[in-house]
Amino acid sequence: MTIRTGRLTRTLAAVAAIGLCSAAAEARDIVWARYGDIDTLDPHKATSTLSLQTWSLIFDTLLATDKDGNPVPNMAESWTVNDAGTEYTFKLHDGITCHDGSPLDATDVKYTVDRAFDDADPSVTKASWGPITSAEVVDPLTVKLTLETPFVALVPFLADSFSSILCDSNEGAEGFGTTTAIGSGPWKLVSWTKGDKITLARNDDYTNFGKLAENKGAPYMDGLVITVVPEPQTRLAALKTGEVDIAEPPFDDVAMLKDSGELDIVVAENTGQNVFWEFAVHRPPFNDKRARQAVGHATDAAAAINLIYGDLSLPEACPVSRGVFGNDQDVCLEYRTNYDPEKARALLAELGYGPDKPLETAMLVWTGGNRQKLAEVFQAQLAEVGIKADIEMMDIGTMNARVRQENETAEGKGSMDMMTWSWYDPDILYALWHSPGAYRGYTTPELDAMLEKTRVLTDPDERKAAVQAVFKVLLEDGIHIPLYTPGWEWVFAVRPEVEGFHVAPFVYPVFNDVKIAED
Amino acid sequence: MAELSGAVPDYDHEIVPPGRRAHFWRRVAFTPNGAFGLAVVIVLIASAGLADLITPYSPIKMGVGPRFLPPNGAYLLGTDEFGRDLFTRIVYGSRLTLMIGAIAVGISLTVGILVGLIAAYRGGWTETILMRGTDVLFSFTETLIALACVAVLGPSLKNAMIAVGIAGIPFYARTCYSAALVERSKPYFEATIAAGAGPLRLLFLHLLPNVLPTMIVVATLGLSAAILAAAGLSFLGLGAQPPDPEWGAMLSGARDYFNRAPYLMVIPGLAIAVTVLGFNLLGDAIRTALDPREGSE
Amino acid sequence: MTDTPVLDVRDLRIAFGAGRKAREVVHGVSFTVQRGEVVAIVGESGSGKSVTALSLMGLLPRGHGAVTGGSAHFEETDLITLAPEPLRRIRGARIGMVFQEPMTSLNPVLTIGRQMTEGMMAHGRVSERQAREAAIAMLERVGIDDGRRRLGQYPHEFSGGMRQRVMIAMAMMMKPALLIADEPTTALDVTIQAQILDLMRTLIAETGTSLILITHDMGVVAETADRVVVMHDGRVVEEADAKTLFAMPGQAYTRALLAAVPRLDGAVAGAVARPAGREPVVRIDSVSKTFGGRTGTRALDGVSLDVMAGEVVALVGESGSGKSTLGRAVARLLDVDDGAILVDGHNMAEMRGATLRRARARVQMIFQDPYASLDPRFSIGRTVAEPILIHGGGGRREASERAAALLQRVGLDRPMARRFPHEFSGGQRQRVAIARALAAGPKIIVADEPTSALDVTIQAQVLDLLAELRDEQGIALLFISHDLAVVRQISSRVAVMRSGRLLETGPTEAVLGSPRHAYTRALLSAAPVPDPAKRGRVRVTVAAGSYPDGPLVEAAPGHWVAS
Amino acid sequence: MWRFLGGRIAMGALTIFVTTIAVTLLIHLVPGDPVQIMYAQSQGTTPEQLEEIRHNLGLDQPIYIQYVRFVGRLFQGDLGYTIRGHQPVLDVILQRLPNTIALAVAAMAVAILIGLPIGFFAAYKRGTMVDTGLMVVAIAGVSVPHFWLGLVLLLFFAVELGWLPVSGTGPLNLVLPAVTLGLSNAAIVARMTRSSMMDIMRQDFVRTAEAKGLPKSVILSRHVLRAGLIPVITMMGLQFAFMMGGAIVVENIFAWNGVGRMAVEAIFQRDYPVIQGFILTFAVVVVFVSILLDGVYALVDPRIRRS
């Protein structure tokens, strides 16, 4: 029977190979495999990195980031701010066209902003846009945003794909977010088969004003196919067979791949990703800062990430990661609870826990990126000092809900979670820890005041000091215990014939420069 | 999740009379299938019971050895990605496996027998409602019911056991029902009614003991299905959570290393397969011993 | 008789199992069958008669039995040593076979035509068309009209009797030299049985085919056979000309066998007219029951009947007559739609719950299948003690003491109380069932074909026991049976049923001796009589709907007939 | 026959009816506030907004009204919107359903092509070593977890030998998942077929056929196979349901873009409208297929066709 199956499959394989060859002869697309699918093509309806990365290819943004993560002009050739910091005026480049051929101008920007603030159906990231009260078309190439209060994080936000500019021809278009997504980015949407793949075609009219790519025109390759391959080993196999050009490899195989030179490994820098412990602070045991500190002292992040990610990831000392404004490892290391199991045991003993009475807590972790493995290591580390943590794996969306639910619940056993956030600005701390707090977690009036200050200070040095003051509170009280950066979807294995692939800050892969050498 | 339930409940309700029990077990143990099944089950129970004695390390402590060490003298089955001893984890895993099987089958069996017995005994509307309901659930297949239960309850080992238990109810209820229906139509049952016996006596002294042999066969086969189903859920991440050494979860975790350490995937898979095979063969042998039509004797 | 027999069986030995477990069940059987002769092989269960027949066709179930010695020469060929392929060519073509169960002996998913013609075509003689023509002609000969249409039908569109006709047609179509019929009429009602036996006899006579008839029924033997081979325990006990055998049985076993056969003629043993009690124990008053909703079958249609204390009333009829339904209604094992069933003056039909359970002690039941009648997980002592316990007849000890006494009464030793049903024979189990029925202290016992599954010698013993109990304890008995001879032996009154209606009722002597209803007469004339001298009686037949089935009218004192 | 099919259709309708109720209840059985769980993704949703969402979803209504509404929308083909990405659930499902059905059908074909002949042969050789051997293989077949078998096949045929693509959704990609799912079910089909055929071989009519002197091949093909296949057909409906159930796991291994993979993702994402839609779709497909097979059954079995 085996023999017969063999012959059959070989025949089938031969038949299919013929089919594939003829398809390949027509055009060579870049094939990029990821572990999951996007939620939507509508940038106002999701927050996942997978979605963001895709939007960044289809849509363009007013501003862009340089390689250090600083905002630079893009579609907006320049911008001005009034002295009060409440009016931002952007001047657009002339001649930008949308995928449907219509010009991209101030009305499209206004359309996008208004849509994000639509009362009936606002953007899920409305809060991050800041206190915008209106968007005004001054002339076809000039648009003015008016804010209620100053908001310094608006500029970096407009460099991020959360602020993707949607062409107003999307208005009323059938199936926006599903079958239609008209932008002005380097790639045009051809089709999206849910759960399977997104097919993009080169936007021939594209001009790169500020994005991190050497190529100032349209991408070199004809098309880009983003496929879904959940299993890391399967992605690797597909990379090896050439079915896929670029994909996240299994972490444990990275060293081997590097050594063999079989595939190139690209590690994204300045991802802005921050992985940290946070706690349900409104009830025992984590309402006592000593319990939180004990967790901090029990955690050996360096050892853990070394075990799971090798040298691919770095321990992070600050609540915002490297490449984000205010980050300073030395400053943070002073404040944070460092690995010291003895100290952890002592703190636990103070609280009345001991070998016979472990501190019990749930440990919420979201799926993917080998975090379940990492969590297992942390679980073992905590067990060493007498903390019994039950890992609960869940989707990130679920975890967000759970964390908030835990914070709003007064009863039950302890809860801590391995939270992750990626942001281009320390303003994220405002979202997280300013009352009421994204998860209804730790807040105090003092911290609120300190966070408010970080939003309005326009002088970089003053703002830096204010930000680091916030770090101090968060770290010393064990509210936000940073673990490592980068944290997810930042390692890419690339087939050797693929040239020019790189990743912009905040994990935006750039395909504009990609060329695939003919075999 | 393989459904053994694909086999129709068509057991012959030939009963092993009390006096022949010893002979019966000899018949089970002396067939090659039965002997293998029995051996697997005994080894499983022994390893679950004696796990603390026969394992050299802790099943959850990391770094008791180097990582990814292939099977060798010191670590019989090698070590995993955290430097834990795989042999120890497999042995402790047998404990979980037995527990999962026992609890899940316990739930299915108890509820299934009650539903089946009551439906067969009461007849009329009770029967229609219970058995049509069972049919509806049955057409959903165990996998879907288990999945729906986990969707509601959330992923955890406990919930997976409950889910698999609930998912099995329709099959057990159906089997019990058809067995009870056969018994119910036998003259001895009518004679007992005619003797004036009440419902409890009829249900629990006459009906239950007579369907029990059938249900034991079903439960033995069902154990394997339950173990497989729970391992499947754990494999999908919907069952056991770390650091539990549950075989399905171990297998799932080992997927990331199949280039580097294929034994991490092969061994838990074999453990599941052999265990399930053991229960299947044992169940089959018991059924053959009960059903004179099956064997060549 | 001609010189060379069609079949000559010599010292045939058959064993079940293999190797060390082998157990010989047929120990050197010899007999011959002459051309055109009807030979009956008769015996009780376990005598080896069916196995012998199957072995001749090479049809012993594989892995279960094998011929271990002897020969069976059929037209010069030894069937035993013949290779499978030549044997196959003889099967069907030269030796035909008819089986007991017409309901299952035909393939339900193939048309009758296909099944009738395939044999003829397999033996390579004819085209499909010729085979169909032959089949139509043959159907006509066995009394099935409209053959062309019938060939396109499936077995489920035929009744049991019709199917057996098809089976016979199928076998006889090939004009075999020998036909083996294994209990061909056992599953049929007595009137159909008579028709089938007549048909077979006619066909045999016309074609000159020899027939081996395997049966347990001495009546069937007497009606059909030229020569009889009596088998017992795998051995031939006696072989003789039919007339001789019935007149002067040579062996003790044969004599015992014949003596045990209940007869419709001759002396009546049990049916001595007894003074019946004045008050009826059971009064059945216009009881009706329909199964399967409003459009369903009417199983009982306004039946009324009284049973006096200490009286045995027999309920006779063919399958579908409603006799068992009536019995179960009396035992309150089913709800009736209409009418009342008064037991000791209390209407059982209206009782519910605990009242009903208490009242149940008055009516007990004995069933046909002795194997399924006892809970296999209860020791027989416990089985018999159960009704005593339920009805509060004292503690566990007293109950088991009384149970032991009852078991002793029905002829089982006290120590046997600890044993389980599988350790007993069919007859013994039926005794246990009787003891259980007695344990509740009933006024009446409903016995539904209590002896039909038993061998004739055991049947006689059980009937004797029932008669004794009736005399001794004054319990009334509602005796349900299809066998008029058995009825005649035990009952004092008979009620004849058909299609849910009572057609005739009266004293046994009157109803069976001078039947007034056409249907009763038909039943009596169809019943096989174990006396070859009475062969060839004129059969009375009665078509459905052609007989009176109105209210009963008293034709003679105590003798009521449907008008 | 129409009465038989009518009964089956009624039973199917009942199944779907019960499913709609179960699906409505599902969201209420979830511990915690489903709306909060579902909408936690959105940044800073205020309690008022949550209340509004609850209202929009009708979750503030009494449950029977919710049910009536749910069914009402169902008749318009509206299964609601996904939580993640706000897509119409029906679209999301319909885009993937053909893949799952293709997988189930292909797996069924594999199971039947392998299982049926083996079962038939084992029944024919019943009681011999061949039979015992085949049945042990079949038992081993049902004992191997298919999530493991799938991985092993994947490793061997796709990674080691490179004969087949490792993942994705296309005709060639179908081979491995279909074989994985088909193989473990082939064992069940084999056992089923064997027991059905053995039942038939024990029937009196087979003995009749033998007594007629029919050649063995005719008896087997005409009498045994035909009658024996009928119960097998009736089991196929259930078998198809098992395939659909098994597809949930297999799709996840091979990244086959079907509704099973979607369902597991939805569970992790607590995307209840998708889970609801999945269960409902599953029920409809299973009911439809079983009615279809009942139709086949009714046509094949003269006892039903001509009644």
From TrEMBL, chain A:
Residues 1-27 form the signal peptide. It is found in: Periplasm. InterPro entries: Peptide/Ni-bd (IPR030678), SBP_5 (IPR039424), SBP_5_dom (IPR000914). Belongs to the bacterial solute-binding protein 5 family. GO terms for molecular function: peptide transmembrane transporter activity. This is Peptide/nickel transport system substrate-binding protein. GO terms for cellular component: ATP-binding cassette (ABC) transporter complex; outer membrane-bounded periplasmic space. Pfam families: SBP_bac_5 (PF00496). Keywords: Signal, Transport. Residues 70-426 form the Solute-binding protein family domain. It comes from the Bacteria. One of its GO terms (biological process) is peptide transport. It comes from Bauldia litoralis. The lineage of its organism: Bacteria, Pseudomonadati, Pseudomonadota, Alphaproteobacteria, Hyphomicrobiales.
UniProtKB/TrEMBL annotation, chain B:
It comes from Bauldia litoralis. Keywords: Cell membrane, Membrane, Transmembrane, Transmembrane helix, Transport. GO terms for biological process: transmembrane transport. The chain crosses the membrane at residues 34-54, 96-121, 136-153, 160-182, 215-241, 261-283. It is found in: Cell membrane. Pfam families: BPD_transp_1. Belongs to the binding-protein-dependent transport system permease family. It comes from the Bacteria. It is a multi-pass membrane protein. This is Peptide/nickel transport system permease protein. InterPro entries: BP-dependent_transpt_permease, MetI-like, MetI-like_sf. The keyword Transmembrane applies. Residues 94-283 form the ABC transmembrane type-1 domain. Its main location: membrane. GO terms for cellular component: plasma membrane. PROSITE patterns: ABC_TM1.
UniProtKB/TrEMBL annotation, chain C:
SUPFAM superfamilies: P-loop containing nucleoside triphosphate hydrolases (SSF52540). GO terms for cellular component: plasma membrane. Keywords: ATP-binding, Cell membrane, Membrane, Nucleotide-binding, Transport. Gene3D superfamilies: P-loop containing nucleotide triphosphate hydrolases. It comes from Bauldia litoralis. It comes from the Bacteria. Belongs to the ABC transporter superfamily. GO terms for molecular function: ATP binding; ATP hydrolysis activity. It is a peripheral membrane protein. PANTHER family: DIPEPTIDE TRANSPORT ATP-BINDING PROTEIN DPPD (PTHR43297:SF2), OLIGOPEPTIDE TRANSPORT ATP-BINDING PROTEIN APPD (PTHR43297). The keyword Ion transport does not apply. GO terms for biological process: peptide transport; transmembrane transport. Residues 7-258, 282-524 form the ABC transporter domain. It is found in: Cell inner membrane. This is Peptide/nickel transport system ATP-binding protein.
UniProtKB/TrEMBL annotation, chain D:
The keyword Transmembrane applies. GO terms for biological process: transmembrane transport. It is a multi-pass membrane protein. The chain crosses the membrane at residues 9-30, 101-124, 136-159, 171-192, 229-254, 274-300. Its main location: membrane. It holds the Pfam family BPD_transp_1_N. GO terms for cellular component: plasma membrane. InterPro entries: BPD_transp_1_N, MetI-like, MetI-like_sf. Keywords: Cell membrane, Membrane, Transmembrane, Transmembrane helix, Transport. CDD domains: TM_PBP2. The keyword Glycosyltransferase does not apply. It comes from the Bacteria. It is found in: Cell membrane. Gene3D superfamilies: MetI-like. Residues 97-297 form the ABC transmembrane type-1 domain. Belongs to the binding-protein-dependent transport system permease family. PANTHER family: DIPEPTIDE TRANSPORT SYSTEM PERMEASE PROTEIN DPPB-RELATED. This is Peptide/nickel transport system permease protein. It comes from Bauldia litoralis.
